[in-house]
Amino acid sequence: MIAVKVSEKSIRRMSHYARCLRMAKIRGEVIITSQQLATTCGISSAAVRRDLSIYGEFGKQGSGYKVDDLLMNIQSILGTTDPPSVIIVGAGSIGRGLMNSGLSGTGGYRYEAIFDSDPAKTGTSCCGKKIRSIDEIPELVKEKKEVIAVIAVSTGSGQRALDMLVDAGCSAILSFTLEPLNAPANVEVRYIEVSTELDVLTHSMRRKERA
Amino acid sequence: MIAVKVSEKSIRRMSHYARCLRMAKIRGEVIITSQQLATTCGISSAAVRRDLSIYGEFGKQGSGYKVDDLLMNIQSILGTTDPPSVIIVGAGSIGRGLMNSGLSGTGGYRYEAIFDSDPAKTGTSCCGKKIRSIDEIPELVKEKKEVIAVIAVSTGSGQRALDMLVDAGCSAILSFTLEPLNAPANVEVRYIEVSTELDVLTHSMRRKERA
DNA sequence: GCGTGTGAACCTCTTCACAGCG
DNA sequence: CGCTGTGAAGAGGTTCACACGC
Fold first, then answer.
1. How far is A15 from chain B (nearest CA, A)?
2. What is the pTM of this model?
3. Of the candidates A108, A120, A127, B129, which lies 20 to 30 Å from A185 by C-alpha distance?
4. pLDDT for B147-190, tens place per residue?
5. For strand C, is any atom closer than 7 Å to the CB of B57?
6. Which chain B residues contact residue A155 at CB under 8 A?
7. Which domains does chain B have, with CATH numbers?
8. Residue in chain B lying closest to A4 (CA)
9. What are A199's strand-pairing partners?
């Protein structure tokens, strides 16, 4: 496949298309149109076709896209045909909550292990997995080769967790911490910011009140 | 204040500025420059000044912005001076995890209540709050007037939860469900999609491998 | 006829660079 | 002199509308 530079927004939409396609597949649908994908994802059909056409011509004029083929193509583009392992760092409320909720229906991701620095927690179980000491992170990263780490530690410990993960060779991190983290350029860090989402919601709510 | 139409990206950055300002205030700083805000948020100083200048002239040439004043102004812009109540619908792993992790350090938000449809769960406690039946949602929304609801129910029940919330008069929703939800135009729905974030991370990780 | 793929127009956001003020 | 606020230029993403193939 040729390396195509593409915006994060487009990749994010690709992820949505993949999800819709998995659902369509479960419903037994064989063909899907850009219009159907668009409606489900809440965007325009032109945007769908534009996104898909960046990577190739997957559709057939007059009919649409074959669900199975398109899904496989998108997974190949995203690199999720064989998804990397996911580990959780921090066995507090959020970490354990994520572990217990699992990742079913997400196209093959799985929480492989959960770690904590507190000796009172390590050894106890969470969702059938032993909570392991953070000292064991390096060996797991080495064993699994490619790992995405979810940082779910308490405020103030985020940077330490990240440094430890980077040292262990992890290059993809999803953080639930409030504080912005510093990472080397070759390490991708993304954030899930509940409080920012709440701010955006509050803003739009309060703005609408003047109408 | 005059109604200014502004992009969601800008509002999201405003939320980040507010967070930086709260941290600076705790550290006892009185004045802050656009450059300092920019570095902390990982963007350019010009972007910061542009964002702020949309709403007014908050700074002083030659020195910078007064931390306290700017924070109050941004909170007023976001509408978060007196933040709305937040409730959680769904007392599964994620719902309870969120409840237990709380919202401290987010500028005044608070989880006011948690609801579930399962009679086996209602009545039991979570983080010092009784899990209440979803039948009680309408009265709570009415009592609090303005409420943001976090949907943390299991896959397949999201739409039902949303409908119930909308009927109760809730107009701002943050959903952790995988499935896209349908809501009336006057209701703002946002999503937290862990699996999409994982897809984006996988994509960039696998792309870098060819270098 | 139907739905894809795509040039071209359009629009929005970002970056640059500098005037202006404390 | 330092830093803000902002016109102007630039980059990037979205929408339109239509030619083409089934």
1. 6
2. 0.96
3. A108
4. 999 999 999 999 999 999 999 999 999 999 999 999 999 999 99
5. no
6. 104-105
7. 8-78 (1.10.10.10), 85-195 (3.40.50.720)
8. B207
9. none
